[in-house]
Design brief:
The structure holds 2 protein chains of 2 kinds. Chain A is mostly beta strands. Chain A is built from 1 helix and 11 strands. The longest helix of chain B has 26 residues.
Chain lengths: 204, 347
């Protein structure tokens, strides 16, 4: 818990610092929103919404015969909220939320590579009718389920559509650790596919 | 403006109707054809029980899956689903650390003793949910045949009968029995000219197994026992296995859970220290022992041992002639017939 708190405070400090540094451009200009599918297609399927706030951006300009080649590297803060379920067994209903940093490389054609690190993550399972047994006493549990710490990493690809409201798509493979799950740590693999959109006044 | 408001109201009404449709269907419990999933929270574990079938007489058959680390849901197949569920309700239980069970606990909270208490906790919940007059039968398959006796030795008063299906009441003895059963089967099959190369390989494997218990070698023989079933099927010695299990279980979670819980129990000496053979005489409720004639996973010699040692006056042993470790898959009709007949006799 101590580690999670320290990570959370560090992320907060970084957020506040960036707000100060980027005071001259509006929040909406630096933020993109996203909505998409997440799950493993077979037995766990869900919907995810999120936002990416641009923290740093570097442009690497290379002179070529045909002209300039601009490679953009971005660091973005990432926040997500999702809900997934297993339609067969109704036993994997859960809300997940995670926060972290994205490194993204975009080439001149808009092709992107993403590496995502989410040190802060929380998964809350929602169980159906649940009864707790303590000795001979049986009682019905209100809002049954459990919370788990779920840090994650992801790698993926995407496409940026310059100047558009629906500014691109992404496809990430995410590896999450759900802990303390039973008597250990549960690894979870999931696919994330969705679209990004923005409310920028000056789209670029 | 009015148009916009009206269209919004329409959308909201549609969404509410959609959600209410699903919320209603869950509450309309049909006692003749139950289809429910509930969880049992006990000692930091949340364990699902999938309840299906006819509970009009409040007769519940609790299924203890194999493994350790199998899955309750996976037992819902063939005639268990199509026949036994018509006769009585069947409760498929994901044990602690298995299937879709979850929780936060330490390795010290994993033991056969605690897992047996989990089963008794399930019974308490079913009594609260369906009434104190509910009647229970317990069925254990494979590792479920270890957990079953462990449960009944704690409290058998709540159960009207025990059904032991190829159950490992003596995990400690398996290491040596594997060697004997694999060799015996190999000799028989070679004499019959069946898959000679394969069975010669089995003989070589057994010859090289160390005398004292070794976990690695235990699993070598265990894997071979199941591979042998495939060869016996190829040669028509046992029937083809049927499995019409439906739905997508969370495979990765199930595999990870199963592997983890099995490792913990093995580390604690499941196959070195645990045996209920000498305590089976304390189980005095009516008992039915069902076994496949060609079982090597839990060798057939244990069928007679279970029958001889159970303390019940009403006990029966039945051997399936065309089956190995899972007669519910290889002789499903006969399996259902035996189980239903037993339940109806003692309910």
């Amino acid at each position: 818990m101590k580690v999670q708190t320290i990570i959370f405070l560090l992320v907060c400090i970084l957020c506040l610092q960036t707000q100060g540094q980027n005071g001259n451009s509006s929040f909406l200009d630096r933020t993109e929103f996203k909505v998409g599918y997440y799950g493993n297609v077979l037995w766990d399927n869900g919907l995810n919404i999120g936002a990416e706030y641009m923290w740093k951006e570097y442009k690497n300009i290379k002179e070529r015969k045909k002209g300039q080649k601009i490679i953009t590297h971005q660091f973005l803060f990432n926040g997500n909220l999702g809900y997934s379920t297993n339609f067969s067994t109704q036993t994997d209903n859960g809300l997940s939320t995670y926060y972290g940093l994205i490194w993204r490389r975009t080439n001149p054609k808009g092709k992107q590579y993403n590496v995502v690190l989410n040190p802060l993550g929380y998964y809350r399972s929602f169980l159906p009718e649940t009864y707790e047994v303590k000795g001979d006493r049986v009682s019905k549990v209100k809002l049954p389920g459990r919370g788990y710490y779920t840090p994650s990493i992801a790698i993926g690809i995407g496409k940026h559509r310059k100047g558009k409201k629906r500014s691109g798509w992404y496809l990430n493979l995410q590896y999450t650790l759900r802990t303390n799950y039973n008597a250990g740590t549960l690894p979870v693999l999931s696919l994330h596919y969705g679209y990004r959109f923005n409310f920028k006044r000056n789209r670029h | 403006m009015q148009k916009i408001i009206l269209s919004k109201i329409k959308t909201v009404t549609l969404i509410l109707a959609f959600f209410s449709l699903f919320s209603c269907s869950k509450d309309d419990e049909n006692i003749n054809d139950l289809d429910e999933t509930i969880y049992i929270r006990h000692r930091q574990a949340d364990m699902p029980a999938y309840i299906h079938g006819n509970a009009s007489e409040k007769v519940f058959l609790i299924m203890l899956h194999g493994g350790p680390g199998g899955a309750g849901w996976a037992e819902r197949r063939n005639t268990i689903k199509s026949e036994i569920e018509k006769n009585n309700a069947v409760v498929y239980f994901d044990q602690r650390g298995s299937g879709n069970s979850q929780g936060n606990y330490a390795e010290s909270d994993v033991s056969i003793d605690i897992m047996a208490e989990d089963v008794l906790a399930l019974v308490k919940v079913l009594k609260v949910k369906y009434g104190d007059d509910s009647k229970f039968f317990l069925l254990g398959h494979s590792w479920g045949g270890t957990l079953g006796p462990a449960t009944l030795l704690k409290n058998q008063e709540d159960f009207l009968g025990w059904i032991d299906v190829d159950g490992a009441h003596d995990p400690k003895g398996l290491y040596n029995e594997y060697k004997i059963a694999l060799k015996k089967m190999a000799d028989e099959q070679i004499a019959l000219d069946n898959n000679i190369d394969y069975w010669k390989g089995v003989l070589t494997l057994v010859k090289n197994i160390s005398i004292d218990y070794n976990t690695k070698e235990f699993y070598k023989m265990n894997r071979q026992a199941y591979r042998a079933e495939e060869k016996l099927t190829d040669d028509g010695v046992i029937n083809n296995s049927k499995n019409d299990q439906d739905g997508w279980y969370n495979l990765l979670t199930t595999l990870w859970n199963g592997n983890n819980i099995q490792n913990i129990l093995v580390k604690k000496g499941l196959f070195e220290k645990v045996s209920f053979t000498d305590k089976l005489y304390k189980i005095t409720i009516p008992s039915l022992v069902l076994w496949g004639k060609y079982d090597i996973g839990v060798p057939t010699i244990y069928a007679q041992e279970a029958y001889d040692n159970l303390g019940s006056n009403d006990k029966e042993l039945f051997i399936f002639e065309k089956s190995a470790h899972s007669p519910m898959d290889t002789e499903p009709d006969l399996f259902a017939e035996k189980v239903i007949e037993f339940i109806n006799r003692y309910k």
